[in-house]
Amino acid sequence: MSGGSAMAETADEDSNGTIDNEELRNCLNKLQVSEFESARLNYVFDELIDAFLFFDKDGNGKMKRKDVTQRMNEATHQERTPSHITSQLFKEMDLNKNGHVNLKEFLLSIIRWAGVETDDDEARNETSP
After folding, report:
1. How large is the C-alpha radius of gyration of the chain?
2. Which domain CATH number covers 86?
3. What domain range includes position 9?
4. The total number of structural domains that make up the chain
């Protein structure tokens, strides 16, 4: 299990597949994140939740490939994201390959795309020649 995945599972206290605001705050307290850092992280978390909700068109807590494709292209009719790009993005987010992306999968994908190194990544880099 990767460090990011392990951290997400630890933060998901009720094991419902999502990390709500209270669980995030508890996690930040355990990590001893300062109040200033916590406020910044809460802002980023809120923005990520808003992004997830934007793609979760029917509000059931699961994004569908069709909804992701539609939402990515509805802002402008002049520039459309090619379907192979949106399909690839969705495929990368659908970690359990069930055809839907929940909040946990979405957040783990964002972390991976942002290039945040996990403990596993750091250990590999230390042992590499």
Report:
1. 16
2. 1.10.238.10
3. 3-118
4. 1
